[in-house]
Amino acid sequence: MVSAALVRTVIGIIGNVISFGLFFSPAPTFYRIIKKKSVEEFKPDPYIATVLNCAFWVFYGLPFVHPHSVLVVTINGVGLVFEFVYLTIFYIYATNKGRRKVLFLLGSEALFFAAVALITLLVLHGTHERSLVVGVLCDIFNIMMYVSPLTVLVSNGIGALSGLIQLILYACYCSYNNGENNGDGDDSVSIIVVKGKIELV
Are both 166 and 83 inside the same structural domain? Predict the structure, then answer.
């Protein structure tokens, strides 16, 4: 009869293989960044969020937090290395503003992680309490990791709303202009696009 421990190990290995694919998936993006020597419009948010997620899962898998979690530590340790490589590439080819953002967010994450680690080790006693608290934090940061790519929707959403408002104003202006124009003179209006924004000329 198959033991529960064996099933757990097999499922854990399968999960690690899938997770490795997840961590490796941004590689083509960073190959493109290296090739073009520019981060273009890419944002570091998903990779910074993944650093925090992997760091907490590595901490969670340590023997004094949640024993017998070798698979958790190994795959998230690999993920942590991948993310630092990605962020290093991003930092090299980013603008000064982008570099400052990366350093600030990584520094903030390091301070937060250190604070949580100290509180966990000094205040919480026993692996049950530690694994419960750290496990909940891991789940929260895991959700943040998957949600972080959606930050691009904020700027795109604002741009779409701005474009919609401009189109409505243009439609209103055209209606007003047609009502006032008696056919004498040229009151035509042209539309041009400047840096993604619609302008009337």
Answer: no
SS3 59: helix
- Categorise residue 124: left if φ over 0, alpha if ψ from -120 to 50, beta otherwise: beta
Same domain (yes/no): 80, 140: yes
Percent of the chain with pLDDT over 90: 48
**Count of domains forming the chain:** 2
- Are 86 and 122 in a shared domain? yes
Give the tokens for residue 95.
Answer: 């603008």
Question: Do 138 and 178 belong to one domain?
Answer: no
Cα(123)–Cα(165) distance, integer angstroms: 54
Helix, strand, coil proportions of the chain in percent (round to 5)? 75, 5, 20
Banded model confidence at residue 181, pLDDT cuts 50, 70, 90: low
Residue 110 lies in domain: 4-152
Residue 122 pairs with which residues in a beta bridge? Answer: none
Say whether 193 sits in a helix, a strand or coil: strand
